[in-house]
Amino acid sequence: MQMQKLAERKKALVFAAVFLIVNVVGIFFISIHESKMIDKYLIEEASDTRHDFNDVLKDYKHSFQIFSEMLSREIENNPDPNQIWDYLKTIDATMLDIEGDTFDGLYMYYKGRYLYSWDTPYSEYEKTGYVATERPWYKDAAAGDGEIVFTPPYMSYANHYILSTISQLQPDKETVFAYDIKMGNIQALINSMNHFEGEQVILYNQNGTIIGSTDDDYLGSSFHDSIPEAKQRIEEAKEELSAIDQEDADEIAKAKEKIASATSFYKFRESFQDNLTLLSKNEKEARSISIGGSRYYGYLLQEEEYSFLVLIPFFSVLKATLSSWLVPLLLVELLLIYVLSQVNRGLKNRELKEAYVELGQTQRRLEMALQVAQKEAAIDELTGMMNFSSFRKNMTKILTEMEPEDGGIFIMIDGDHFKQVNDNYGHNIGDEVIKLTAQMIVGRIRTIDIASRLHGDEFAIFVADTEDYSVAQRIMEDINQTLAKEAAKRKMPAITLSAGAVLAKQGDTYVALSKAADVALYRAKETHDGGFAHE
What is the DSSP string of 194-227? Predict the structure, then answer.
């Protein structure tokens, strides 16, 4: 009896050792695979951001070329500086139509004079000692020798946007055409790349100035500042505030915003420590880094003029890639249990039967766990809708399987004034509004259509088998109407949903469709009352 107990104990120890060793080896190889997947995603994320960013710059340059051609023709027909000055003021509205909200005013250096489209008297510039040929926009254009150039962007705290100047030296080597642009399209691009919970995407130029960030408070700060220098920016901003006339409300508001931004960036810079140096030494792979005591995956793509930084919390990545590592791990467990049960078969018949029963039960539990894990990986936890990752995968499959005659409409949706709901009623009520919105969207689409909550108060719908934008518009009007009625019935704060739609055909990609729909959505949101626009 004693010998039998010793044998059983020895067998149990051997099985435990084998189980432990196989699990350690399995986890090791799975972690290597997971690391490669994370590397691939972060590199693709940074590369996609760079590609789309370059497209934005090309759009800016294309609009500037139109302006240059218009102005060159006018100079050829009417070379008098006074006439050119009058002409600048007349095409201000035209350029606003071409560039949209990014446009911020025209100016030039022509025949020794500074000409511009604003109504500000020239005497105001003379008071400040303004010399056009000494300004960065003129010097950069001269150095560009005919190339279209951008001056280093900077933060306009008075208007809360990043401002740059695009300029070009003309063939006479003296005349320079220029105008200011608000780089809001870049910030919209950065926000659209935010695919993971807590993800941060930061774009900065060769001077370290942040011109795009998922956190607006970082805009205009410098990544080249050390931690003490970042802290000093706060003190400088406070000194500026103390020197302002207390009756100048606009300047006080501007100074306070500058203090808030400097403080926010200092806290981030302090928690980020020397990770930028670490990431810059490992350009070919993502690195696990610590930020404020939390683990992140980070990747830095450095270009000659711009750098792209992507930071994703460790647990956000694990949650989003649940199916890629949990499924193999569960398969290892199943295989291990099966092998051990087979080994045990030759030891005892009775134990074999018990092992088979236990194996079947364990397998069933694991299958149930796997089903739950796969379902959780595919749905949005708050609303039960398809999540971003699953929606993008389904859209890619739909687009791949489309025939030339097939078509559909891709709709990007964004809530109007949702931030006010959170601010006035709290995040719990805000979550209820999001859930109600999701119910209204799901209830107004067909079974062949798909819908998703992307993140926050942003949703997307793909309406299959139609190329008629009026169908998409009616769907959105119906959603907004039922949402308003249901919110009133439940005595909840109501929001409207603005939407931008784009036609999807064979050969389209998800990235291209989402970008085009986002442009349409930007136009739709101008009224902030459930607007609808399409490409």
Answer: --STT-EEEEEETT-BEEEESSGGGTT-BTTS-H
